[in-house]
């Protein structure tokens, strides 16, 4: 839903293409940043995930398909289910 919200304004909008017909890299970078900012601002800021990375392949043929695929990778947070603490006596403690 967050990625959807980040890109909904781009749906059915004109997309600038490079000379070879692929999506212009500046557009790709802008969209990737929008997705990451949206998810970071919500999920990372709330401690729900550790990090997010969005990827859009600029070589997609949107002229023919009218479809764009976005890949989002999320690094989850970890949970300590068990903690072992070792305690023992010593004759010296060095800093």
Describe the structure.
With 95 residues, this protein is an alpha+beta fold. It has one domain. Helices cover 32% and strands 14% of the residues. It has three helices and two strands. It has helices at 2-7, 25-44, 62-65; strands at residues 49-55, 71-76. The radius of gyration is 22 Å and the shape is elongated.
List keywords for this structure.
95 residues, 3 helices, two-stranded antiparallel ribbon, alpha+beta
Briefly characterize the structure.
This protein is an alpha+beta fold and 95 residues long.
* Number of separate structural domains: 1
Shape: elongated
Strand residues, percent: 5-15%
Q: How many helices?
A: 3
Compute the gyration radius: what is it? 22 Å
Stretches with pLDDT under 50, minimum 5 residues: none
Topology:
Layout: H1 2-7, H2 25-44, E1 49-55, H3 62-65, E2 71-76
Antiparallel strand pairs: 1-2
